Amino acid sequence: MLKQKQAQFYYDDDDDEQDTEERTPDDIMNSDFFNDDIYDYKERFFNRNNNHQEIPEGDLAQDEEYDLDENTDENVNFQFQNEEEDYDENNDNLINKETFFKRVDSMEFVKQKQPKVIDKYLIGELLGDGSYGKVKECLDMENLSRRAVKIINLKMVARKIPKGVQNVRKEIKIMKKLNHKNLIKLYSTFEKGSQPPNNHTDHPSQCINLEKPPKLYIFMDYCITSLEKLLKTAPLQRLTNFQANYYFKQLIEGLEYLHSLNIIHNDIKPGNLLITCDDTLKICDFSISADLGMFSEEEYIKDKKIEQEEDEENFDGINPNLLANSGTGKFPIQQCTPMFQCPEMLDENIDEILILKNAPKIDVWSTGVTLYQLTTGNLPFQGQTLHQIFELIRSEIPIEMPEFCDKNLKALLNGMLTRDIMKRWSIHEIRECEWFKKKHPLVKEEMAPLPQEAKMSEANDQPNLSSDKFYSAEEDINIKQNEVIQTHINQESTSRVLTQATKAKKTNCSMM
Amino acid sequence: MAKNFQLVHKICTTRCQSTNVFTAVSLTNREYYTVKITDLDDLTDPQVILNEISRTRHIRHNNILPLLNSFVQESQIWCIYPHIYYGSCRDILNAIQAYYTANSDQNLNTNNNNNIDRADEQIRLCFNEQSIQPIVRSILLALDYLHSKHIIHRCVCPENIYINQSGHVYLGGMGYAISLIDNGFLNKRLHEYPSKIDNYVNYLSPEILQQNLIGYNTKSDIYSLGVTICELANGIHPFIGCEKTQMLFEKLVGYDIGLWDRSILTTESKNIFVSVCASENPKVIAQIQRRCFSEKFRNFVDLCVVKNHEFRANCHQLLHHTYMKKMKLQSCLSTFQISIISEGLVELQKKIKNKTIQNQSDFSQIVQKPTTPSKNINSWNFD
After folding, report:
1. Structural domain includes residue B365
2. What is the pLDDT of residues B238-283, one digit of tens each?
3. ipTM value of the model?
4. What is the three-state SS of A444-501?
5. Is A160 assigned to a binding site?
6. Set of chain A residues whose Cβ sits within 8 Å of the Cβ of B280
7. Does position A74 have pLDDT exceeding 70, yes or no?
8. CA atoms within 13 A on the CB side of B150
9. Cβ contact (<8 Å) for A489 and B269?
10. Mutation to test the B interface, candidates A75, A89, A147, A481, most B Cβ within 10 Å
11. Is the CB of residue A401 less than 8 Å from the CB of residue A410?
């Protein structure tokens, strides 16, 4: 029973593995998989007494799934393999002496699961889930660099989110333009099951018609955590001034670059701020950001009515077509997460031209909310319903600051969370602020640690742990070749590794 | 400035087909130089070549290949290096390999046992324990210097170890080097993964490949050096024939690389070795069986290729290892060793060409050329 459960466990994994067929336990029992093993074992057992001279080559090759080159070296190869098996048997016999059946290793079931390779990337463990799709870890097979991949089910996105597919396309377009160390980098995209990516248009209906769900893979930088998660693990549920300042500076750097390209992120929140291994902040998720640049190729350019040509020079860099289109219901800036929504977007009689002129201030507001959350641990505007939150944002009630915030921080937060868009601080003013420039004391005890589990499992050199989640998929791909190695790692080396691991533990303890 | 150099012949093409390496004669002083010409038009990312130029200009060490000059000629960057007579260790390895395959063909035809013995002898002579020692020592000195400047080389491999006519060993290829000092701060660890390093991924240390929070430091160069020594001593790369993903797996959890000699075949560890070495063939086994490394050398290599970088030795410790002290201190290959290598190479090349036993007249012809080492060694040797 246990075996069957194990087998099932590896099958019902996730809907991504559609290629592998569902197999009932009966199928597994009937498959030549088991029978072969028994046969194999018998063969070996009997041949052992004959000094293992004749092992039928064909069977062996099948069983071990070796792709042997058909050259003259085969004989020698077989000699060595025989000896290895001999060695293995001895070990097996020591463990379970009489049984004819080979001990079933879980590795054999893992083997059944095909490693998934998209383009040149090997797909690994799930990292996170979002409204647009999953994010998985992956490995570039050419240069072995670690990446993350966002898998977007276009069919589902088209059904669930209005303008979903367009947003995805727009995100890719924007990401291709970016090159900054605080913005997430796009390496490549891959589209499966829909039209070739060249003539893709924004018509989701075309994608839906296909049998297989069309999927879009976006390969990006690998990050270990987000500020949101970091905040949860922090000892005081908030970051220290030092840490908040460290990340905030990087956030401002990234935003400034983004605004210099006339792109408005529009969705700044701790969940969209990722942290890489080297503690660099990366802004991600450009799905609802707006490109206001002169050359943005949004579709609302088509019905143009250029009226205010004389005003153009005032909106340096902003596409005049966007301004001309105001009031036609094609406003480029979309609604973002409610808690981070800025007041002017909630206004009923919204002055679109004013907002477009001061579009960077939208990001300043959400950055202010983010900073508030980072330093205090709470959101400035909270409520039971969306309506309550929006009312609170729109009202004129001054924002409460907790006691522990110092004077400079309060000034900065007040400046960023000014409801009047004209009086709200610009990024330049933020840069000039005391709290931004000041060097904050480093308090180690109150620092939010980067994810500890990854650190521990990878720090120790234990063979089973350090091959952890990420590399499990590779084990599969190499399992054919590794089978032999796996079973034949001799006592010496394992013990050596183990002693090393214990040493590592000791040193870790002493360091702590 | 390019007028001053007369290109003699092309040595090789490297890195994305846009860099060509030539031997050139300077028209001003009639000396040989190596000229590396990079065409900027075909170059997708100039970062590597720019990094190489700027890094090399900031450092100066006896064992690091100096950049004599660099300038832009139309759309090309020209880098002038001193003339490297023997090329890189990779070239020597290739020559051995070519000889080996040529010889094995011959062997199949004639089945001459004598020939095999001689071939093995030749190969052992080229990169034996004694001749590797000064190479390793020179590279260690160079690395020690770089590490004292907080620079990580990241690309220590046979391609980047050059031997010139007098047996002096240079470390080159600073294109992937990175400094621990960033923005005025000295970092303890780095996390940046050299993703453009494609071809040399086999030499990267496990902690670089892991790309986790721990990062890597200067000790990752030591691991690369260990792999390089293994390749020089074994004649083939420890992970030859492996898929890159499997190589990664092996480096992280699997098989410990090391020197392959007689002792590895007699114990149970043979199994590991045989199963990993995918390009297994009886000749390699036979060759390994003849080989025997000293305990000190084996220990030295083992110290280099420890998987956990916490326990790996650093440059300074390795320079004082008994293997380094065994012979008298020398920063370059001795006359004897260089003559062995050169003669070996000449013989190898000739044998590849002719597939006949060496002819006395042929040899004398080679000797009479002005650049032939066997004549010039004595004049170059100031010991």
Report:
1. no
2. 777 777 887 888 788 766 777 777 777 665 555 555 545 544 566 6
3. 0.75
4. CCCCCCCCHHHHHHHHCCCHHHHCCHHHHHHHHHCHHHHHHHHHHCCHHHHHHHHHHH
5. yes
6. 73, 76-77, 80
7. no
8. 11
9. no
10. A481
11. yes
Residue B356 lies in a domain: no
Smallest CA–CA distance, residue A226 to chain B, in Å, is: 14
Average pLDDT for B349-372: 42
CATH of residue A253: 1.10.510.10
pLDDT at B220: 92
Is residue B271 within 8 Å of residue A84, measured between CB atoms? yes
Distance in angstroms (rounded) separating the CA atoms of residues B324 and A488: 35
Beta strands in B42-183 (DSSP E): 69-73, 76-82, 151-152, 161-163, 169-171, 178-179, 181-182
Question: What is the distance between the alpha carbons of residues B224 and B202, in angstroms, rounded to a whole number?
Answer: 9
Same domain, A70 and A202: no
For A402-417, what is each residue's pLDDT tens digit? Answer: 888 888 898 899 898 8
Q: How far is B166 from chain A (nearest CA, A)?
A: 37
Contact at CB, B196 and A143, closer than 8 angstroms: yes
> Do B270 and B319 sit in the same domain of this protein?
yes
> Is the same domain home to B130 and B172?
yes
Structural domain contains residue B357: no
- Helix H or strand E segment including A148: strand A146-153
Distance from the Cα of residue B212 to its chain's centroid: 29
Give A219's pLDDT tier (boundaries 50, 70, 90): very high
Question: What is the tally of structural domains in chain B?
Answer: 2
Question: Are A231 and A374 members of one domain?
Answer: yes
CATH number at residue B56: 3.30.200.20
Q: Which residues, 6+ apart, have CB-to-CB distance to A42 below 8 Å?
A: A100
Domain end residue (candidates: A199, A222, A245): A222
Q: Are B225 and B297 part of one and the same domain?
A: yes
Asked which of B82, B99, B119 is the last residue of a domain, the reply is: B82
A-chain CB neighbours of B255 within 8 Å are 485, 489, 493
A287 and A418 share one domain? yes
In chain A, what percentage of residues exceed pLDDT 90? 9
Same domain, A206 and A280: no
Q: Please report the pLDDT score of residue B224 as a whole number.
A: 93
A145 with A265, same domain: the answer is no
Asked whether residue A468 falls in the same domain as residue A443, the answer is no
Domain count, chain A: 4
Q: Are B372 and B364 in contact (CB under 8 A)?
A: no
User: CA A143, CA B195: separation in Å to the nearest integer?
Assistant: 6
- Whether residues B123 and B58 share a domain: the answer is no
Domain that holds residue B15: 2-82
Sign of CA dihedral B96, B98, B103, B105: positive
- Give buried/exposed letters for A371-405 (b at 16+ CB in 10 A, else e): bbbbbbeeebbeeeeeeebbebbbeeeebebeeeb
The boundaries of the domain holding residue A430 are: 227-292+332-450
Residue A364, Cβ density class (10 Å: 0-12 exposed, 13-18 middle, ≥19 buried): buried
Which tens digit of pLDDT belongs to each residue from B42-59? 777 788 888 999 999 999
Kindly state whether residues B70 and B102 are assigned to the same domain.
no
**Each residue of A1-57: pLDDT tens digit?**
444 444 444 444 444 444 444 444 444 444 444 444 444 444 444 444 444 444 444
Q: What mean pLDDT is predicted for residues A281-304?
A: 70
> Mean pLDDT lowest for which of A86-95, B126-135, B201-210?
A86-95
Highest mean pLDDT among A16-30, A57-71, B298-312: B298-312
* Residue A277 confidence class, pLDDT cut points 50, 70, 90: confident
Burial A218-248 (b: 16+ CB within 10 A, else e): bbbbbbbbbbbbbbeebeeebbbbbbbbbbb
pLDDT tens sequence across B84-101: 887 888 877 777 776 666
